[in-house]
Design goal:
This protein has eleven helices and eight strands. By secondary structure, it is an alpha/beta fold.
Amino acid sequence: MGKKPNLTGLSRFLPQDFLNSNATSLSEKPRNQSGPAKKRKTDTHVPVRTKYDATALVPHYTTTHEVPENLQKYFSQRKRYFSLYDQGCLLDEEGWYSVTPENIAVQIADRCRCDTILDPFCGVGGNAIAFAKTCEHVIALDISPIRLALARHNAAIYGVADRIEFILADYISFANAYISRPHSTRNIDVVFLSPPWGGPGYISPSENNVSADNSADFQDELEAHSQYSLSRIQPIHGADLFRLTKRISDNIAYFLPRNTDLNEISALGLLEKDEGVTPGDKPRMIEVEEEWMGPKLKALTCYFGGLVAGQEHVF
């Protein structure tokens, strides 16, 4: 994995007809920009204004009384999501309950060091920002123009926006176009899969009406008696999503709910077999890492291919 220059635009990755109809890059510089933005001295408690400022899109809450009741428990953890929150980090409603806590994102990014990484469900940018500190180039996709703008805004606050290619596209279309692209000298080394789990009520399929303001104790008790199935992953079955992703790269980090059925994760290992494996080769392993925040287990990260500890030779 030698270092390669950063790229702008998506033309190095996909056919031109896909670019024109299905995807929009947010990393292109404005045509009328006369020069680089001037640096300003900032107070750590004053929101930072950058050329990617998106403060008009969603509110930046500073006190509890400003926050809708269904988001208050998330607001209390805002510094866990973004340590630089006070400098103006922005989240939409979905972002508040789906962003990866910063310390966990940093841990995953350290495991996923590579040249080019794809984050196809980037949301408000928590993981993409962490990847930009350990990878040469990050491709961040989302189907929401607002969330993509928020992700770029947040990345600018962390000073890594220039290392991330923000693309408005759905992953299924992107993946199919990438797979069918003409031969390219630049490949995607790692894919980080963090697809939608189903919202705050994902814990139990029989509890779709569970609201975000239920107590944490109730949520933990409910989860202890349920298992999350990959069939609930969006936009397609989680196993099908993994199968599609393996056509891009064998090196996959799959971020899943903490109560995911381990038998279903194990079954994904059957897809690790490929034509290049001979009878004498050792079977490929799956590494399941528990992501803890204090005494709370938050999620599982499942590593495949060369991301598995001791299996780096297959990267």
